[in-house]
Automatic annotation (TrEMBL):
Similarity annotation: Belongs to the short-chain dehydrogenases/reductases (SDR) family.
UniProt-listed SUPFAM superfamilies: NAD(P)-binding Rossmann-fold domains
Keywords: NADP, Oxidoreductase
Taxonomic lineage of the native organism: Eukaryota, Fungi, Dikarya, Ascomycota, Pezizomycotina
Species annotation: Gomphillus americanus
Name of a matching Pfam family: adh_short_C2
Protein name: Uncharacterized protein
PANTHER family cross-referenced by the UniProt entry: BENZIL REDUCTASE, DEHYDROGENASE ARBD, PUTATIVE-RELATED
Origin superkingdom: Eukaryota
GO biological process, one term: mannitol metabolic process
Gene Ontology terms for molecular function: mannitol 2-dehydrogenase (NADP+) activity; oxidoreductase activity, acting on NAD(P)H, oxygen as acceptor
Amino acid sequence: MSLRQSLIRQSLSRPLLVLSTPRSPAFTTLSKLYNKHPGLPGENDPGSGTHSRTDKNVKIQYPLEKNMPRSVPYQGHGGVHDKRTLASFSLEGRTVVVTGGARGLGLIMAQAAVISGANVALVDLNEAEAAKQSSAIVSHFKSENPDSSHTPTVTAHHADVSNPDSVSACITSILSTHQKIDHLITSAGFTENFDAIAYPPDRMRKLWGVNVDGTYLFATAVARHLIERKSRGSMVFIGSMSGKIVNIPQPQAPYNASKAAVRHLAASLAVEWAHAGIRVNCISPGYMMTALTRKIMDENPELEKKWVSLIPTGKMGSPEDLMGAVVYLLSDAAGYTTGADLVVDGGYTIT
Ligand SMILES: NC(=O)c1ccc[n+]([C@@H]2O[C@H](COP(=O)([O-])OP(=O)(O)OC[C@H]3O[C@@H](n4cnc5c(N)ncnc54)[C@H](O)[C@@H]3O)[C@@H](O)[C@H]2O)c1
């Protein structure tokens, strides 16, 4: 065996961690050797994949509406109880607008607002699904509160959050029923997985339009209403832990960047609107098991294994895990909290 062959063999049998000290003699030796051997990773071989923790073979497209699984409202803990808690957590008499409220996280957070005393406007591209779910939320409320004299008003409204005219028509429609808006939750958003170089530009723009423009357009429309009404209010933007870390193995650069933008938008608007008593905060969820995530896991079982292995609590979150977080941030209990990012991720981003 030649000296070079023996060096390659020894080097490759060492952990790749050696490569993480780029100035070390071992790194230099390895790099030189690798560069003489096409196909092995090295300084002049950026595409080999050995260093990459994302896998470009993972491609997941956001499903067409007809293939979307339906979410169901949460059953349990929505009735009257005798556990004492702070009155400042109540949303009694408030009107909460939830974008993306027909499904997934938006639906459960809307239900949390109803359980906490609010009336809710569900906004979604799929108005028919939002209408079905608004009836479902009210019937759950009635079955869990059979003696209540109050029935919450839960309405459904169409909007494409990325379209300014659609947003403005939607605000008019909400005000014609509810007369006022006090709070906003922006949950309309989606992710897709394509390797960055192959990402179809039209899909990238669409994703940015919904996740970033959609949050901005709804937030500014609600702030305009609050300022005209000379009323205080609060908003919660749904970001993602992907705005702080880079997920592996699925490639999703535009989504990650869009969620970093959502988080910083919350902070920026919090400063801009503090004078008007409008608080703006962000929630950054980790991996949550919605109906859609369940479908993706069933179709890509290796992803679930990988994801769970990286979560310190050893499991994915349930949409219900966001109920307390969103009610807290919307309510007066968070009166001095603005521009914050509440991470709900089972500890994923700590490590
Ligand atoms: N599920 C997770 O694990 C997870 C984790 C972190 C962050 N998030 C974020 O939470 C938010 C909700 O995600 P989800 O898992 O509930 O998704 P989901 O697909 O179940 O629900 C999203 C809803 O938004 C609606 N929507 C999509 N585009 C729209 C548009 N242009 N205008 C109006 N409505 C539109 C959809 O019709 C759907 O009802 C998203 O912003 C997502 O990025 C989700």
